[in-house]
Specification:
Structural class: mainly alpha
Number of strands: 0
Number of helices: 5
Largest sheet: none
Distance between the termini: 19 Å
Radius of gyration: 14 Å
Strand content: under 5%
Oligomer: single chain
Order of helices and strands: HHHHH
Shape: globular
């Protein structure tokens, strides 16, 4: 995946989360917005790659992000997706807003890139569009 795609996706994710969390400068609101978006993603993707596939990609995305944000490291083998989301939400809420914004964007970007590696960019964009809104995660592309 190109750096341009990565940067465009990161900006789109940060913008979306800021809009969904509202203008409140609150890590808890941002954490809740993230959990809400994650549930949207799960419902959109589970029929295609299965609940286990979504959880595995999510786990890997969190694991990759924990290299830069060690407080994100959580045991993903045990527990339901709901329990994992509550754990992440609590960890996000305990950090400064700027750090949370970057960490969440990193997790979601990792997830989108892993998914695109698995099923391709075009299908990823089509599947995530309804969960995130039109053109949210799709970087501008030139028409053929």
């Amino acid at each position: 995946m190109s750096t341009m795609n990565t940067n465009a996706r990161r900006e789109a994710i940060q913008t979306l989360l800021a809009v969904r969390a509202g203008s409140v400068n609150d890590a808890g609101a941002l954490a809740q917005a993230t959990v809400d978006r994650w549930r949207d993603l799960t419902s959109q993707l589970a029929p295609v790659i299965g609940a286990g596939g979504v959880k595995a990609l999510f786990g890997r995305a969190v694991q990759k992000a924990s290299a830069n944000y060690p407080w994100l490291a959580i045991p993903l083998e045990d527990g339901t997706e709901a329990a994992l989301l509550l754990t992440l939400k609590a960890r996000f809420a305990g950090e400064e807003v700027a750090t949370v914004e970057k960490a969440i964007a990193t997790v979601l970007l990792n997830f989108v890139e892993l998914l695109a590696t698995l099923i391709g960019e075009s299908l990823t964009d089509r599947l995530l569009g309804p969960a995130w809104g039109p053109a949210t995660l799709t970087p501008e592309r030139e028409m053929p």
